[in-house]
Amino acid sequence: MSNRTLIRGGLVVTAADEMHADVLVEDGRIAALAAHNSPVSQTWTAARTIDATNKYVLPGGVDAHTHMELPFGGTSASDTFETGTRAAAWGGTTTIIDFAVQSVGRALREGLDAWYAKADGNCAIDYGFHMILSDVNEQSLKEMDLLVEEGITSFKLFMAYPGVFYSDDGQILRAMQRSAVNGGLIMMHAENGIAIDVLVEQALAEGRTDPRYHGEVRKVLLEAEATHRAIQLARVAGAPLYVVHVSAEEAVAELATARDKGLPVFGETCPQYLFLSTDNLAEPDFEGAKYVCSTPLRPREHQAALWRGLRTNDLQVVSTDHCPFCFTGQKELGRGDFSKIPNGLPGVEHRMDLLHQAVVDGHISRRRWIEIACATPARMFGLYPKKGTIAPGADADIVIYDPHAEQTLSVRTHHMNVDYSAYEGRRITGQVETVLSRGDVVIDGRTFTGRAGHGVYTPRSTCQYLN
Question: Taking the model in full, what pTM does it have?
Fold first, then answer.
């Protein structure tokens, strides 16, 4: 009984169901569920009982897109695996999938081992890795097969950032052909980077250097064009495709058209595109630099199309693309030249809360919240039903969520290692109260009780929408 925990009286919400149920946790896993105060649950005993009356009992969030310690633009993301996973736990996320990076001219294995070393022993919650392919060649294509066998079953390619991560259409096609055979999933940053670089050069030459021009040169049409092109390349290769951080109505339309044809094409968006806009990029006195990310924030009118896409399942996942850079000393590298502002926003701590606010606001249902934040990312990246649901046998990654609590997001209260909040002063309804990771309480009534090293590396199977 010493390793048993009983959660009583809450509303258990999964992607499929809602029920007032008691949950028994044993040996790090969910042992059983039974109707609250049923004859079965009344016989249960445990060393610890958590009262979840008037609260939600949720699966831990799965954030399938984070960048801890990512080197970028001459600096590195300010969250380490230790600080970033701790902040994730505070926000009700119990699994992240981060991106290991292949350096041009180097083996995939070398990049992957470097990321294993960064994360090992430092994470407060469980983690996995995708692999960024920066250099598609015969050797890296062969290595893809080995990584899939090892549980690294997704590979990110970039149509943007020439000279850094960029792959041309031929390289992309080769990687897609390989994934069609080995079962891997290609994740695509879909922006026409070659054309964007021309517009960047022209803007700077004309003295348009402020942060807001970052959004203006990375045009909606160049996201839509690249999304369309990625879809056609995937069709030629006979491969599935997952488009990351979709931000624009026209890109959603490309995904919807492909899905209407029955193609295995998937899309993710992020809270910043749902809640922020070019209004933020245009904030005076270089404040707009805080909101520079790629794909960029869009005019507010795109938000309706993103919410609609989440409701119609043309977008399936909300991840954060958490890649924080401090305003002081990092974002400031781009004063006088927006192209030198490190691209990325902090967000891993706020995803679950912001999406609950979307439930409150009527954009999505409670079950859809759990679907896009927990269950679908777990299925998409081969972690379900170990992660992403509350069911017997699943890991006991559980969030006790108070849907009535009110909070104000602020740099003064967040736990991410960054000197500003992208959502400063935003009032939201709902707050994480207690979090279990594999049965261990890591947030206890708004107190961190976890530790670096509790989180373990979690290998993944292939995308469960393709089997």
Answer: 0.98
